Every structure is written in C-alpha cells, then in structure tokens.
Structure of NAD(P)H dehydrogenase (quinone):
Amino acid sequence: MGKGGGCCPSKQTISPSVNQSDQDPHQSPSTNPDHSIPITIQPTKLKIFIVFYSMYGHVESLARNIKKGVEEIDGVEGVLFRVPETLSFETLMAMKAPEKGGDVPEVTVEELVEADGLLFGFPTRFGCMSGQMKAFFDSTGGLWREQKLAGVPAGFFVSTGTQGGGQETTAWTAITQLAHHGMLYVPIGYTFGAGMFKMDSIRGGSPYGAGVYSGDGTREPSQRELELAQHQGKYMAMIVKRFGSHSTQ
C-alpha cells in the first residue's frame, strides 16, 4: 500500500540513507550531485542614504535615530554619510566644535545614485542650509545634467539655534535642490500624530521634517525630538518600499 494510504502502491522511490563514510571522497560536500555549485540568492535590501552635516552633534543625533526608524521596516537599510567639511581645522577648534567620529564615512557625489531614498540633514544658516551642505549640493552638477536622481524620494531634517531660527524655512528653502534634480520631496506632514500637537515642552521639527533646537550648542535633543526623527526614518522607509528600487525604475 502506498505511503499515503491509497489503494495503489506508491511510485515514489525512497533513496537509501547515505552515511558520511559512504560519500564519494572526490565529491565536495558543498556541491550538488551533478557537481554544480548551489547558489543561495539573498534578497537585496532597499537603501536609504542619510546624508548629513553636523558641527556640534545635534544633527548627527537625529541622523542616528532616523537610521533606527528606517530599519524598523523589513527589507530597508539606513546608511549614514557625512558631507565633506569646508572649514579649516583651526576654525573648527576656535568654534569649539568637537572632533567627528570615524565610524561615519564621507559621501561622494557618485554614491548618491546607489540610494533608493535620500534624507539630508543640516543646521541652519540664516534660515537656509549650512554652507557645507550647500557646497555638496553644488558639486552634484554632473548628476543633475543627466538627471540621475530623478524620481528618488528625498526629505530633510534640521537643527536651529532658536525657536524662530528656521525649523520650517531651512527645510523648504532646500526644496529647490530636489526640484532641479527631479527628486520627489517627502515631508512627514502630521503623520507623527499627537506628538506633533503637544505643547508641554520645547520641540523642534515640523511637517517638513524632524528637527532639533541646539541653543548655544550645549542643549541636548529631547526625547520627543529623537522620537520624531525615528518616526521620519520609518515613514520614509515605508514610502521607499512602496516605490521599490531606484535602479529598476
């Protein structure tokens, strides 16, 4: 009687078990019987590049929490990058800027095309992005000429010294960079929910993106500011996953 309990004998042939000592010593255990090498294809994760400039560490704190949020979404990876510094070492020392850690590499213009989504973070300078970030955008002319970044979802997160120092203007004046490249601006709106409406504490951020108040440089990001940053990362990852890989578009 067949193994399944039917009326006819089973046609399935059961191969005898092979002990390790019975295996052909000339056949590699990592190959198939026909000597082909089995290939395991790992699914490629979508990548969101989190590209930032941070002088005193406030923007970097947001960036690291954004990365946490990105990686809450299965199949999406957050990758941290710094833009190159434009100030001299002596100037930075005079401004009491702490030394930057070596765990985050500097981004190159050519690497941007590998991203499926982009989030740019920077402090404000008179209501606009800092000179370091602007210098980096100015160096992307080759990508602009060929519209290599067209269709890529992108967004911003910022740092300002005061409550009226540009939490919104710093982001929306940067939208021109995305427009010329043909990128798709992704604000967070009010998707953070009730956290966007609470008035019981000072909080950076706006519908344009996450934000932090740095004060004179000594204020640390609040828990709610960090939570908003993490939310932005998760929200962007959801959008990017919906769009799919930029390389296949």
